[in-house]
C-alpha cells in the first residue's frame, strides 16, 4: 500500500516536471498573454481618444453653413429699402409705383411726368478719395411683395461727351434710417463703402429683381447684402430727337417674399465629446483593473503550484 502511494507521487511529480520542461515559459507566457490582452483593449481606446479630439478640432475650424428662409408680406425690416442713384447730368423725369407686374404704356416719353416716389437729394464727398463731390438721388424702394409692387423710373440725358452712357445705383437696407439721420452725407458715405453698386444703360428698360440676404457673424452682429437678377429689353424710340439725346428706364421689384438668413453653425458638441471621452476613460480603467486582477490571479496560481510541488517533494522525501 505504501509502495503504491510512493509510485503515484513519483508519477505526479514526473508529470509536473514534464509539463514544466515542455512549457518552461508558461508563467512568462501567461504574463505576456495578459499584457497582450491588456494592450488589445487599451490601444484601440487610446486611438479613439485621439480620433475624437481630432474630429472635434476639425469641426471647430470648419463650421457648417446654415441657410434659412423667412417669408414676409412687406419689406419694411430693417427699415425699408433705399435706392441711391448717381445720375450725373441725367435728370429724373418720372417715378411711379405700380402693382402686379403691370406698367401702363408710356405717355410723352422724354417729357417730365409725375414723381410719386419719396425722394431725397444729397451731396457728399467721395468716401474713397475725400476730394470729389458726389450727387445722389435717394428713392424709397418697393415694399409690398404680395401685391408685386414695383418702382418705375425714367431719366433723361440731354447730351454727353462719353462714348457710353449709364447711370450708377446702389441698394441699401434702411431708407427710414437715412431720412431720420441728422448726418445724411456721412450716412451715404458709409453706404457706399459697405454696399456694391451697379449700372443700367440708356436706350433700354432694365428690370431689376432684388432679394435680401442677412448674414449672422460670430460676434452676434448682422450684415445685409442685396442680390439681384436683371433683364434688359431695347426701347424703341419713336421720337424726333437730337442724336445725343438718351432715355433711361429702370424697374425695381422684389424677386420673392423670402428673406434669406445665413449663419455658421459649429456641429462640434463639447458635451457629446466629454461623454464619449468619459466612456473611453472608463473602459481604460476597467482594462487596467482587469490586468491587475489577472496578474494577481497568475501569482496566486503560481504560489499554489509551487506549494503543491513542495508538498509532493516533502512527501517523497
From TrEMBL:
Which UniProt keywords are listed? Cell membrane, Chloride, Chloride channel, Ion channel, Ion transport, Membrane, Transmembrane, Transmembrane helix, Transport
Membrane association type: Multi-pass membrane protein
Keyword set includes Metal-binding: no
Which cellular compartments is it found in? Cell membrane
Q: Which domain of life does the UniProt lineage start with?
A: Eukaryota
Q: Which region ranges are annotated with the description Disordered?
A: 1-37
State where it is primarily located: membrane
Q: Which reaction does it catalyse?
A: chloride(in) = chloride(out)
Q: Which InterPro entries match?
A: TMEM206
* Chain intervals with Acidic residues compositional bias: 15-36
Indicate yes or no for the key word RNA-binding: no
Q: One Pfam family this chain carries? A: TMEM206
Give the protein family.
Belongs to the proton-activated chloride channel family.
The protein's matches in PANTHER family, at most eight in alphabetical order, are given as:
PROTON-ACTIVATED CHLORIDE CHANNEL (PTHR16087:SF0), TRANSMEMBRANE PROTEIN 206 (PTHR16087)
Protein name (Swiss-Prot/TrEMBL): Proton-activated chloride channel
Amino acid at each position: 500500500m505504501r509502495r503504491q502511494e510512493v509510485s503515484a507521487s513519483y508519477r505526479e511529480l514526473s508529470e509536473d516536471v514534464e509539463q514544466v520542461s515542455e512549457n518552461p515559459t508558461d508563467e512568462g507566457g501567461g504574463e505576456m498573454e495578459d499584457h497582450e490582452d491588456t494592450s488589445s483593449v487599451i490601444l484601440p481606446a487610446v486611438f479613439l481618444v485621439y480620433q475624437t479630439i481630432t474630429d472635434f478640432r476639425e469641426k471647430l475650424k470648419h463650421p457648417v453653413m446654415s441657410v434659412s428662409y423667412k417669408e414676409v408680406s412687406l419689406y419694411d425690416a430693417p427699415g425699408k429699402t433705399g435706392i441711391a442713384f448717381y445720375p450725373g447730368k441725367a435728370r429724373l423725369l418720372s417715378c411711379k409705383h405700380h402693382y402686379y407686374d403691370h406698367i401702363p404704356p408710356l405717355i410723352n416719353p422724354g417729357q417730365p411726368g409725375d414723381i410719386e416716389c419719396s425722394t431725397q437729394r444729397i451731396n457728399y464727398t467721395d468716401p474713397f478719395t475725400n476730394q470729389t463731390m458726389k450727387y445722389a438721388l435717394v428713392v424709397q424702394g418697393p415694399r409690398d411683395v404680395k401685391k408685386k409692387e414695383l418702382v418705375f423710373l425714367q431719366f433723361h440725358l440731354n447730351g454727353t461727351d462719353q462714348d457710353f452712357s449709364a447711370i450708377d445705383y446702389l441698394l441699401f437696407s434702411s431708407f427710414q434710417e437715412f431720412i431720420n439721420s441728422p448726418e445724411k452725407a456721412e450716412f451715404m458715405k458709409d453706404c457706399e463703402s459697405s454696399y456694391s453698386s451697379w449700372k443700367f444703360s440708356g436706350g433700354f428698360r432694365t428690370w431689376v429683381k432684388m432679394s435680401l440676404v442677412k448674414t449672422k457673424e460670430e460676434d452676434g452682429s448682422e450684415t445685409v447684402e442685396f442680390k439681384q437678377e436683371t433683364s434688359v429689353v431695347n426701347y424703341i424710340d419713336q421720337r424726333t430727337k437730337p442724336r445725343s439725346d438718351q432715355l433711361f428706364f429702370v424697374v425695381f421689384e422684389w424677386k420673392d417674399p423670402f428673406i434669406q438668413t445665413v449663419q455658421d453653425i459649429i456641429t462640434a458638441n463639447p458635451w457629446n465629446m466629454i461623454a464619449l471621452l468619459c466612456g473611453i476613460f472608463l473602459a481604460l480603467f476597467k482594462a487596467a483593473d482587469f490586468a491587475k486582477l489577472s496578474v494577481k490571479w497568475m501569482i496566486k496560481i503560481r504560489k499554489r503550484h509551487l506549494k503543491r510541488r513542495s508538498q509532493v517533494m516533502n512527501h517523497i522525501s
